[in-house]
C-alpha cells in the first residue's frame, strides 16, 4: 500500500478529489499574466521521483492552454513491475498499454499557481508568490473532509539546491487524508513554478519528485 500511495501521490496528484471551500475569494484566484514561458503549449518538465532508494521518471507536458490561460498538463509513466500492488491502480489512470496516464489543469502566472484538480474542477490556490508565512488556503472534499494548504516557509536568500543551482523557495504544506501520509510539501519558485514535491510518510520516509521545466 505504501508504494501505491507514493506513486499516486506524485503522478495522480493531478487528479485529487477535492472541493473548494471559499474564504473571501482568496482561495480561488490569483493575479498576474499567464503569458509566460512556463505556461505555454509544448513546455515539458524533466522529472525524477525518488522513493525507497530507487528513482523513476515519467513524461510531463503541457498539451494545451485555453484562451483564459488554463494549461492542461499530461503525465505518463511506466508502472514498475517490481511493485505488484501497483497493478491495482484504477483503469482510468492507465492508457491502452497499461501505463500510468493522467491529466491535470493549472493556471500558472507571474504571481502564482492555481490548480483545478478537484471533483468540481474549481480553481484553488497552490501558491501566491507574494504570500506570507502563515497564509492558508482551505479545501473541503465532497465527503466533508477538510484539506489545508499553508505557507510554512519563505526564503530570504538563495538556500534551496535545485537543478545545479541555489534558489529561493516558498514552501507550501498540504494536510493529508491519505492513509500512511502525514503531509505533502510543495517547494515553489516565482520563476520556475513547482520545483519539488515531497511526501512525508508516517513511517518517517520522505519520497520526493523534482521538476525542471524546459521553458521558463
Description:
The protein is mainly beta and 216 residues long. It has a single domain, classed as YmcC-like fold. Helix content is 4%, strand content 43%. It is built from 1 helix and 15 strands. It has one helix spanning 2-10, and strands spanning 45-51, 54-56, 59-65, 71-77, 100-108, 112-115, 124-128, 136-140, 146-154, 160-162, 165-167, 170-175, 181-189, 193-201, 208-213. It has an 8-stranded antiparallel sheet, covered by helices on one side. A hairpin with a 5-residue loop joins strand 3 and strand 4. Mean pLDDT is 83; it is low at 1-5 and 12-25.
State the gist of this model.
This protein is mainly β and 216 residues long.
Tally of DSSP β-strands: 15
The helicity comes to under 10%
Number of helices: 1
Could you give the order of strands across the largest sheet? 2-1-15-14-13-12-9-8
Name of the level-1 CATH class: Mainly Beta
Report the sheet with the most strands, covering strand number, pairing sense and barrel closure: 8 strands, antiparallel
Mean pLDDT: 83
**3D shape:** globular
